[in-house]
Write a structure and sequence with these properties.
The complex is a heterodimer of chains A (about 425) and B (about 325). Chain A is an alpha/beta fold. Chain A is built from 16 helices and 13 strands. Chain A is about 45% helix and about 15% strand. In chain A, the strands form 4 sheets. Chain A has a 4-stranded mixed β-sheet with strand order 2-1-3-10, covered by helices on one side. In chain A, α5 crosses α6, α7 crosses α15 and α9 packs across α16. Chain A is globular and about 65 Å long. The N terminus of chain A is likely disordered. By secondary structure, chain B is mainly α. In chain B, about 70% of the residues lie in helices and about 0% in strands. Chain B is built from 13 helices and no strands. The radius of gyration of chain B is 27 Å and the shape is flat. The chains are: A alpha/beta (about 425), B mainly alpha (about 325). The interface between A and B is large, with 40 and 36 residues.
Chain lengths: ~425, ~325
């Protein structure tokens, strides 16, 4: 039998534990009126702000009474980290906007076998085990060389280089003319730029390279990655990239380029927005990354603003309906494409001359794209690949050779490939 | 101190009446005294309970869960979790990244702990006492601690990067740039410097608090005996501060062995992973690479190392304090 005071203690304890559990496990539940609160974890960038997403979903919310959309920004290092933390904590969102890591695909609700999914960019490429788990809004290109037209003219570089050798020769002339030939930097950009340049050269003949590397039928050491890293090593040796690149911030890279100090900069199409806002600006042009054989390269590309619905969502139907709106409503798509300067067949918006030039490059490549960074669907790298590649490329500035980097990447991949 | 010529003997007759031995009660004889004792200890339970519950909920349970996870290959969210025994621990001791991160952490912890305590103690002695300037300087030294580690990291990253404030000034003065963040040695030195800059303010405050507890009469006696300032510091102040030194050393060491947020914001582990600390590596392996099992093993090892170091330091300090007393 429990005495009075002990009964009181037990009651107090039960209340305290219940309160703690209720507050600790709360996931932003719906209101008492039964409204559906759809939580969207979004990728935040200087142009993709929280307010932008609020405006983007405003049309849907207005036409769907009873549905509330809460926009959530990443709290970790990025959207992927944040989602993993939320999954570990048992409090994931309903919709993921921006994540492309297929390691997380198992957590996503398969999208329905409907036309709007089939029409979404990269839907087919992101298919895993026959299920589409992600729908993109547009196409983001990442194998672009932006260049300072005045610097090219001053250095006597006529035309834009098509082969890697022509590009190296142009960089030498630009160095002679007093410019930083190729603007590189530290943080995430060292490896990212190397992938932007290497991938069209690797995957123009082996589009499923990541899938093949997972099976062990191709290697870094035996591919154009090694050849490309060799060229990169020669650029470091010849001073065609800043020797202190590892200490340069991404924003400083942009500042150097817009200030006319550097002649070229490899980056994705989102750079156009930064160039347009930069003061002072420059007259910039763009060409695709050069290839070893001079052929027109495919563009390394990503789905722009892709959406997935979490399996754990209590409002999966409503969440899928919202994703359908975001990737098929003309107004929503146009708004999303124009803010970052992305592309999608059949959709147009008032673009800057530079964005129009980029669109021409995609047309010239016949719309052909290849994977970048983590890849998509079955053609995906193990988690952590971009970070490891970044570390390895940075080590080249400290004396590591191209062969050593290629060997290290093969070793890393073998240790981390899906079993 | 006890006189050495006193011998302990059986107690002699006393004026006080003998205290009767308290009767021992059992459940079988009478439950009343037990209830009374429980009622008496109720306030203590209420006072200790929340802290105990917090320790169990936020330390004990997570450690047990981490220990269990460290024996698996779980990625943190999927249903596929395989028991791998001690594989993660074996891998950990053969992982070159772990060795490199352990070295970086050791450098930060050792250099940082020594510097924070020497600086903290020195400045505390200088700033002890009244005066506006001293009060202002105390606030100034403590200020970095008020800022978040991430803010400090970004701030110093902007100052020390290749195109940052310092190198811009050097370039303007026609001097060569210093590769603060692009050279491995410079980058590690920069991280250590910023860690010390952001930490030592707390030590100043703790040492100031310790200095306040030293009786003025002791210092006065030393002065009367003709002791110099250094002799007073060495023979009176330092021994009296011994417990504060112990606390400061342990606190700073434990804090610096877990540094990751500042590194994340300042160098992101670069260049080429040369400023990756152990805690940074744990974070990368867990949420970036999806190796929760492996990261848990790393965490457990770090926890054990910190616990052993803390116990050893406290034990050594206690021994030296006792030696001083004797």
């Amino acid at each position: 039998m429990v005495s009075g005071s002990r009964r009181h203690l037990v009651k107090l304890g039960a209340i305290a534990i219940s309160a703690a559990l209720l507050t600790g496990c709360s996931t932003g539940s719906d209101s008492a009126g039964g409204d559906k609160n759809i939580r969207m974890l979004v990728n935040i960038t200087p142009v993709l702000t929280k307010q932008f997403y609020k405006d983007l979903v405003a049309g849907y919310v207005a036409s769907h009474p009873g549905v509330k959309v809460t926009i959530e920004a990443p709290t970790g290092r990025g959207i992927e980290d944040t989602l993993k933390q939320q999954l570990a904590a048992g409090s994931p969102p309903d919709i993921l906007a921006g994540g492309q890591n297929t390691a997380l695909a198992g957590q996503m609700e398969p999208l329905p076998d409907e036309q709007w999914v089939k029409d979404a960019p990269f839907a087919e490429a992101s298919e895993l085990d026959g299920k589409v788990w992600m729908a993109g809004t547009g196409v983001q290109l990442q194998s672009l060389v932006f260049y300072n037209k005045a610097a090219f003219a001053k250095a006597g570089v006529t035309g834009t280089p098509k082969t890697v050798d022509e590009f190296t020769a142009a960089l030498r002339k630009l160095k002679g003319a007093g410019y930083t030939p190729l603007q590189t930097g530290g943080e995430w950009t060292t490896g990212a730029q190397a992938l932007m340049m290497a991938n069209p050269n690797v995957m123009n003949t082996e589009p499923q390279w990541y899938a093949k590397r997972n099976k062990g039928s191709v290697t870094f050491a035996g591919s154009n990655y090694a050849k490309y890293l060799g060229v990169y090593q020669s650029w470091i040796k010849d001073g065609l990239v800043p020797k202190d690149a590892n200490g340069i911030k991404y924003q400083d890279m942009i500042n150097n380029f817009t200030a006319g100090k550097s002649a070229t900069m490899v980056m994705g199409n989102w750079l156009v927005a930064s160039l347009a806002e930069a003061k002072p600006g420059i007259d910039a042009g763009v060409f695709p990354v050069p290839t070893f054989d001079g052929s027109t390269p495919p563009q390394a590309a990503n789905p722009a603003m892709p959406y997935s619905v979490l399996k754990s969502s209590r409002h999966a139907d409503a969440a899928i309906d919202l994703v359908k709106y975001l990737v098929s409503d003309k107004k929503a798509i146009t708004k999303a494409l124009s803010v970052e300067g992305n592309f999608r067949t059949g959709y147009s918006y008032e673009a800057s001359p530079l964005t129009k030039d980029i669109a021409k490059l995609l047309d010239e490549a016949g719309g052909k794209t290849v994977a970048i960074g983590p890849g998509l669907g079955d053609n995906s790298s193990p988690a952590g690949f971009p970070a490891e590649f970044n570390t390895q490329v940075q080590s080249m500035y400290l004396g590591t050779t191209a062969d050593q980097v290629a060997g290290a990447m093969d070793k890393w991949w073998a240790a981390n490939a899906p079993k | 101190m006890r006189p050495s010529n006193v011998t302990l003997t059986a107690p002699g007759p006393s004026d006080n009446p003998p205290v009767p031995e308290r009767p021992r009660h059992t459940h079988h004889t009478s439950p009343r005294p037990l209830r009374a004792r429980a009622a008496r200890s109720l306030p203590s339970i209420f006072m200790v309970g929340p802290a105990l519950a917090a320790i169990v909920a936020f330390i004990l349970i997570p450690v047990v869960v981490a220990g269990r996870l460290s024996l698996t290959d779980w990625d943190g969210f999927s249903d596929n979790s395989k028991f791998v025994g001690l594989d993660n621990y074996v891998q950990l001791f053969h992982d070159p990244d772990v060795a490199s991160a352990a070295y970086v952490t050791l450098v930060i912890a050792v250099v940082g702990t020594v510097a924070c305590n020497v600086l903290g103690l020195g400045l505390a002695v200088m700033l002890n006492g009244q005066g506006r300037v001293k009060a202002m300087l105390r606030g100034l030294f403590f200020y970095p601690h008020v800022l978040g580690a991430v803010i400090i990291g970004f701030l110093w990253s902007a100052i020390l990067s290749s195109e940052g404030a310092v190198n811009t000034l050097l370039t303007a003065a026609h001097r060569s740039k210093i590769p603060f963040l692009s050279d491995p040695q410079w980058a590690l030195a920069a991280v250590v410097f910023v860690v010390i800059w952001s930490t030592f303010g707390v030590n100043v405050v703790l040492y100031l608090a310790g200095l306040q507890t030293i009786p003025e009469s002791l210092l006065e006696a030393a002065r009367i005996d003709g002791a110099s300032r250094w002799q007073t510091f060495r023979q009176v102040v330092l021994p009296m501060l011994a417990p504060t030194v112990t606390i400061n050393v342990v606190l700073v060491l434990v804090q610096l062995l877990r540094v990751y947020d500042l590194v994340l914001a300042m160098t992101d582990g670069g260049p080429a992973g040369h400023t990756q600390t152990y805690a940074y590596l744990v974070l990368s392996e867990s949420f970036l690479n999806g190796k929760i099992g492996y990261a848990s093993a790393q965490s457990i090892v770090l926890m054990v190392v910190i616990a052993v170091l803390a116990v050893v330091i406290v034990a050594l300090r206690q021994r030296s304090e006792k030696a001083v007393e004797l």
